[in-house]
Amino acid sequence: MLRTSGMASMEMVHVIEAQAQIAYESGQLVRAAERWIAAAQGRLAWHAPDHPEATSAVDNAHHVWQRLRDVEAALRLGPQLVALRRRVPGVSGQALRALQRKLEVLNSGRFSQAG
Q1: CA separation (Å) from 79 to 9, 22, 41, 65, 99?
Q2: Per residue in 67-105, pLDDT tens?
Q3: Which one of 43, 78, 96, 104 has the largest count of C-beta atoms within 10 Å of its C-beta?
Q4: In this structure, are residues 80 and 86 in contact, taking their beta carbons and an 8 Å threshold?
Q5: What is the distance between the alpha carbons of residues 60 and 33, in angstroms, rounded to a whole number?
Q6: Residue 27 per-residue DSSP state
Q7: CB-based burial, 3-21: b 16+ in 10 Å, e otherwise
Q8: Is the dihedral of CA 70, 110, 63, 17 positive or negative?
Q9: At 68, is the secondary structure helix, strand, or coil?
Q10: In the chain, what are the domains?
Q11: 53 CB-contact burial (10 Å; exposed 0-12 / middle 13-18 / buried 19+)
């Protein structure tokens, strides 16, 4: 696939989405979040932010990210997800605001444990 279509092809986006779904179903939530973020980035390279497939990919990335129990992974992936949510903010920007609030909570918990 990579040799015939290229890394930035829509075919590769489909492969990444399949990897994300497999990781999610096998309980590998960090990997699933990473893959859904990559898939959403790929979708947005090909589609407008309001395209249903782009919106769905960003929503999937956000959904999986919310389920992460690994705080460090959530904090590491958070900025990438915020960048996606700035392009696809959800209804009335609610998803973006919810994501930003969750990151604030995660960050405050990390700093209070360190001090």
Answers
A1: 24, 24, 13, 11, 10
A2: 999 999 999 999 999 999 999 998 888 999 999 999 999
A3: 43
A4: no
A5: 8
A6: T
A7: eeeeeebeebbebbbebbb
A8: negative
A9: coil
A10: 2-114 (1.25.40)
A11: middle
**Which residue type sits at 109?**
G
Instruction: Name the amino acid, one letter, at 23.
Output: A
pLDDT tens digits for 6-35? 556 889 999 999 999 999 999 999 999 999
One-letter amino acid of 72 = E
Q: Give SS3 for 50.
A: coil
Rounded to two decimals, what is the model's pTM?
0.87
How many CB atoms within 10 Å of residue 46? 13
Token reading at 51? 């395209």
